[in-house]
Automatic annotation (TrEMBL):
UniProt biased composition (Low complexity): 994-1016
Residue ranges crossing the lipid bilayer per the database entry: 716-741, 753-770, 782-807, 819-838, 858-886, 907-932, 938-960
Classification via Pfam families: 7tm_2, GPS, Pentaxin
Family statement drawn from the similarity comment of this UniProt entry: Belongs to the G-protein coupled receptor 2 family. Adhesion G-protein coupled receptor (ADGR) subfamily.
Gene assigned in the entry: ADGRD2
Alphabetized UniProt keyword annotations: Disulfide bond, Membrane, Signal, Transmembrane, Transmembrane helix
Domain GAIN-B positions: 518-705
Protein's membrane topology: Multi-pass membrane protein
G-protein coupled receptors family 2 profile domain mapped to chain residues: 714-961
InterPro entries listed in its UniProt record: ConA-like_dom_sf, CTDL_fold, GAIN_B, GAIN_dom_sf, GPCR_2-like_7TM, GPCR_2_secretin-like, GPS, PTX_dom
Name of the protein in question: Adhesion G protein-coupled receptor D2
Amino acid sequence: MAGILVTALMLFLIKKVCEGEPTVGGPDRVVDQHGTNKLVYITSQWALQLVNDSLPFSRANSFCRSQFASLLTLNESENHEDLLELLRQTGTRSSVWVGQSSKPAAPSKQYLQISALSFPKESHEGFARVNISFPALSAISMCVRVQWDRDWNDVSTIFSYAAPVFTNEFQLRGQLDVQGRVLLALIIHGKHLPYKASFPNDGAWHHICVTWRRSGNHWAIYVDGESKDTGSGTDTNRDIHGDGILILGQDQDSFGGNFTEPFFGNITDLNVWTMGLESRHIRALNSCSTLSQDMLFKWSLDRISSHPAVKEVQTSLVCPAAYPQVELQDCRTLQGWTNQLPAWGQTECSNLLPFVCRSTKERYLKMKQMSESQSVRPSAFMNHLMMLSNRTQPILAQLPTDLNNLAQASVLLNISAQALEHTPQGELQPADMVSLIQLLSLTADIPIQPPTPLENSSQDGVLELSQHFVSVADSIICDENRLKWQAIKEVVNGPMDVVKSIDRMVTHLSPHLMSQTDQLTITSPNIKLELQQQKLQEGSKVSSFCGPDTESHAHLDCISVPPQKIQDLHSNGFYKITLVNTWYGSLRPLFNPEENITMVPTVTDGSQRYLGTFLGSSVVSTTVLGDDQPVSMAVNFQLQHRVENSLGTVYDPVCAFWDFDLSPETGGWWNTKGCKVVSRHYGHTVCYCNHTTNFALLLQVYEAQRSPENEKALQVLTFIGCGVSMCGLLFTFILFIAVGVPKSDRTTVHKNLIVALGVAELLLMCSDWASDNRAACFLVTALLHLFFMASFSWMLVEGLLLWSKVVAVNISEDRRMKLYYIIGWGVPVLIVGLTLAVSVDKYKAEDHCWLNVQTDTIWAFVGPVVFVLAVNAVVLCRVVMVTVSSAHRRAKMLSPSSASKMQTFDLTWAVTRPVLILLPVLGLTWLCGVLVHLSVVMAYVFIALNSFQGLYIFLVYAVYNSEVRNAIKRIKEKRKALSFTNCSQPTSFLHSQRVPVSSWSRSPPTPSSPETSETSGANSSTSMSLVIKNESFRKESFVSFSMKQASENQVVQLTGFKPSGTKFSWFDII
C-alpha cells in the first residue's frame, strides 16, 4: 500500500494537471479517474488553469509556482474576459484567490491635512503630555507618525508611559545605526528589547505601530504597514499598570519628570487601543483608514498639553490607499462580476478557496507534450521509480493537497534519490527534470510548525530530508544535463529556479536543523551547503565558508561576513546569528552560451573591443538570519575564474548577483548594484557586496588588441618616454630663461607649449597611482583633459604663428599675443568647464583616470584635437610649398643652366626637412593614433613619437636652435673676456677703469646697417617682406621672405647663406 501511495504521488508530480487538458482556444472540462475537475482556457497568448481543489492562499501561490505559472493578478485586465468565460463555463460561483502584482499600478493616493507637533532641536526640554486616564491594560497598541530630524544622531524617545509604581512600563525609542537608518526598540516592564526594526532617515513621514499582549507576552513593531520585529516573553507576565502618564518626545526617569533623551522632529496621528492589533489592521491604518474598536485615545491636540518649546504645525500626509474600503482584510479574492466588471474582495489568507494559475500558451503546451510522452513511453528514471515502488503501471495521482507535510515530502525525495542512483548517467529525460524541479519547489514551501524542542528522531528526519533534497538538486544541475536544460527552457526559467528552491528550503528548515548543533554541512558533487550558528557577544565572528578544494594549489571559492558587521548585530540587540552558505560548482555550463548577458562594458577607455559577457565562475551565496529572521548584510567573497584564457581574448571580471526581482517573468537576471571589485588576480577575483544573495563573477570578453608582452612593453615605453620628455621640456624651459634668449612672440609661445605639455605628461605618469582613489582619479582626469587641451591649443597657436611668418598679417604683436593666450588657455578652460557641467556623471572612465569613451564625453577632447590637427596640417602644407619654391629659386640663382634638372634628393630634402622640424610643435604625430588598432607596430610608432615629444622639442628648439646657441656663445665670450681682463690687469686697475667690456675688440659687431642696406632695395610700396634677424649673426646672415603682389618676376624667396657657403637652416625661422 505504501508503494502504491509513493508511486501515485510521484507520478502526479511528473504529469501534474496537464493530462487531458485542452489545447484549443476555449474552455474544456476534463474529469480524471479520481473525479477531479480540471479546466484550462487557452487564448492566443495565455493558458488559464482553474484548480477546483481549495487551498490556503500561500499553498495556492506555491502550487502555481511549481507549475511554472503565477497566480492570476489584479491588474491583468487583458485576462478579465477570459477569466469570466472560464468561471462561467465551470459554473464557479465561489470566490477565488487572486495574486498581487509584482509591479502594482500607481495607487490612488489620498492627501490628508492634519495637525502635528514639532519638537525643535534648539530646545532639549520640549515634551507633550497626553491627557487621558489609563486603566490597567492586558493588551495595548499605539500607532504614531514621525518625521525624524536628519541631523540628530543620539538616542531619542518617541513616547514613554510611566506608572506610579513603575517608571519604564512602556516606551518606544530610536537611534541611528552606522548606515544612517533609524533603529527602533521597545521597553516593556523595564526590559529593553533589541534595536531591530528600522526605517530610512530620509526626512519623510513614517507610520510606526507597536503592539503588546499579556498572553504569551507577544509584542511587535510595524513600520509603514510592515512587520519589522516581533517577539514573545518579557519575563514579567502581568498587565501594564494603570493611572500612568504618557509623554511624547521625552524619557521619564521619574514619574512625570526628570526628562532625558529628547526627540527632535515632528509627531502626529498618535492613537491608542486597548487591544493587540493584527497585521491587516495596521496596514489599513498606514493607509489612513480608521479603527474605532477598543480605541483609548484618538489624535486630538485638544487633549494634549505641551511645553512652550513644542510648536503646533500643519502638515500634509500622503496615504497610499489603493483599495481603502477593503484594506482591513488580508489576501485578495475575486468575489464575482458586476456589469461585466470584476468585484474584488479580501478574506483571511488561511481560508480554503479555489484559484486560477496563469502561464504562457507555449509553456503550457510544452508541459502537456512532455506529460503525454511520459505517459506513453516511461523513461528509465520512471521505470526505476515504479520498480522501487513495486508497481508496473503508472497511476495518475490526486491533486497535491496531500503533499502538505515533511513526512510525505521526505518519502518522495527519498524514493526519487534512489531512482536517480539507479538511472544511468545522462539518461535523465527533460520530462523527468521538470517533474523533479516541481517536487523541489513544492517541498520548499511545505508549511512547518514553529520551532519547538524536537525528538532526536524528528531532527534526523529533517536532516535526512535536507540531504535528499540536495542530492536530487545536484542530479538536476550536474554538467551531464546541460543539453537537457536547453530542451526545457520553454518551461523552466533556468537553473536558478533550483537555487531558489534550495534557498527557501534551508531558510525554512534552519531552526530545526540547528536546534541541537552549531554547524552542519551537507555536500554533494556539485553543491556544498553549510549552516553556522552562534550566540552573539563581544568579539563574535564567524569563519569563512569555502567551496570544496579541488586543487591544492588553487584559490578556493570563499565568502565571509566582515567581523564588524557581526558586531553591529550584537550592538543592535540580536541574540544569535545563523549563516546559511551554499556553493554551486556546475551552474556555469547550464546557462545558454548563445544568450549573451546584456551589460555595459567596464573597459571604457576604448583600448579593447567589447565582445560580450558570460558567467565565468561558480556561484556562492550567503543568507544571514538574526534571531531566525533574514538580515541583509555586506559580504566579501573571492571566486576562481573558470575559463581558459584563449589566444587573442581578454577577460575582465565583474562582481554580480542574481536578482530574482529584476525580471520576475523570466526568473530574474544578473545585477551588479551594490557590488564592486576589490582586487583582480591571475585566476581569481576578490569582490565586495553590500547585501546577501547569490553571487558570481561575470567575465566580460574583449578582443585582445595586443599581447600581454606588447602591452607591458608599451606601458614601459610610455613611462620612460614621458620621463625623458619631461626632462627635455624642463631643460628647454631652463635654457630659454637662463641663457637670455631674446624675447619674442615665438619664444613666448614655445614656453607656454612646454609648460602645458610638461604638466600633462607629469599627470599622465601619476594617473595610475590615483586610480585607486575615486576623487583623486576624477581630479586627475579633469586636469589631464585641461592640460592636454592646452597643449593642443598651443600647438594650434604655433601653427597660427608660423602662418603669420609665411603670410603677412596686419595685426600688432601685443594684440596677437592676447589672442594667443585666449586660444592657448582660455579655450581649454571653457571646454573642460562646459564638459563637467553637462556630463559630470559620465565624465570619467570606470577604471581609468581618463575620459569615458563609451559616452559623448570623449568628443570634448577628440573634436578640438581633430580641428587643431586639420589646421596645422594646412599650415604645414603651406610651409612645404614655400620651402620647395624657395629651393627651386635658389637652384636657379646659383646655377641657372641646371635649374630645370634639380636633383630628386634636393627636392626630397626640401620637403622632408620642414616636416621633421615642425612635427613636434604642430602635434601632427598624433595622427598615428588613428592607426594604433591596426597594427602593434603603429602602436610603438605612436608612443615613440608622442612620448618623446619633449625630447624632440629639446633637440630642435634648444640644442640646434641658433638663438639658443648664439646666446650661449655670447655668454662664453663674455666670460672669456672677463677672464682675460682679470688675468692681464692688476686688481687696482680693474677697480679704477670704467670702460665697458663691449669696447674690447673681441666684441661682436652690430649688423644693423649692412642688413638694412642689403634688404632695402628689395622693398617697395607694392610688396611685402619679412626679414627674420638674429642679433648674434654676422652681417652676412639673413633670411628673407618676399611676396610681390604684381610683377613678372614675382617670387617667394626663402634664402639663407653665410660666408662659408653653408645652406639655410630651418631652425632660424622657428
